[in-house]
Write a structure and sequence with these properties.
32% of the residues lie in helices and 24% in strands. With 234 residues, the chain is an alpha/beta fold. Helix 3 packs across helix 5 and helix 5 crosses helix 6. The longest helix has 14 residues.
């Protein structure tokens, strides 16, 4: 009798859109995407993580107009061979994501990541891709540790149940066509992440366990934390 062969899912084929077109308004005049972090621009650490993931076949970088040439020089210097396009972002994050999506090759999945999260790991990205294939979407997130208050005018209005609250991160992985459609339909509605657009479009959004070390660099103090986290890995 022939042995039953185990069934396996086909390999995930995905592109990444790395968004780093922000104004860095809280960085004391320093553009955080190209701020030095362990001898390399901060953005290079995020790109390197996606470059190392076999399922990621193409990477699109979205930068501010003033950084386009710096981005091209970075890709050349670091030999980021998966970067297939570098484009200019828009005024809002969702405008930048839309710009990047226009240049993504026709692959089934797309992972959107904030370039200001340099501590993302290939393992975290791979888990997101695998979870998206199982569930239809995958958003990195971590349970909140602090008690959260809803405040208006300095007065506490409510205290949500902490057990239901998660802090959302990136990468966020969705079917490419579904994300394109959601961005197109809700272009005029403000959204702080891609999951919000997918929710409005009626798509189920699944979270998977992210990493507390996957911080977003927003202030100069965050740079010191990111450096310590990256240094601890080496």
């Amino acid at each position: 009798m022939n042995a039953v062969q185990p069934t396996t899912q086909p390999a995930v084929r995905a592109a990444a859109v790395i968004v780093a077109a922000g104004q860095s308004t809280r960085m004391a005049g320093v553009n955080k995407a190209f701020a030095p972090l362990l001898g390399k621009p901060l953005l290079a650490h995020a790109i390197a993580a996606f470059q190392a993931v076999p399922q990621i076949e193409a990477i699109v970088l979205v930068l501010g107009q003033s950084n386009l040439e710096r981005g091209k020089a970075l890709v050349k210097a670091e030999c980021f061979r998966k970067v297939c396009a570098i484009c200019q972002g828009g005024l809002r994050r969702q405008d930048s994501v839309w710009s990047g999506l226009q240049r993504v090759p026709p692959l089934p999945w797309v992972a959107v990541h904030d370039g200001a999260r340099p501590c993302v790991t290939p393992e975290l990205i791979s888990r997101g891709l695998e979870e998206a294939q199982r569930s239809g979407s995958a958003v990195a997130a971590v349970p909140v540790k602090d008690t959260i208050k809803v405040v208006a005018g300095g007065l506490v209005q409510a205290t949500p149940d902490r057990s239901t609250l998660w802090a959302v991160q990136t990468p966020q992985v969705f079917p490419r066509e579904a994300l394109l459609d959601a961005c197109r339909r809700f272009m005029d509605a403000p959204a702080t992440d891609d999951a919000s657009l997918m929710e409005r479009a009626g798509h189920p959004v699944h979270v998977y366990l992210g990493d507390y070390a996957n911080i977003k660099v927003t202030t100069p103090e965050d740079m010191a934390i990111a450096e310590a986290l990256l240094r601890s890995r080496t």
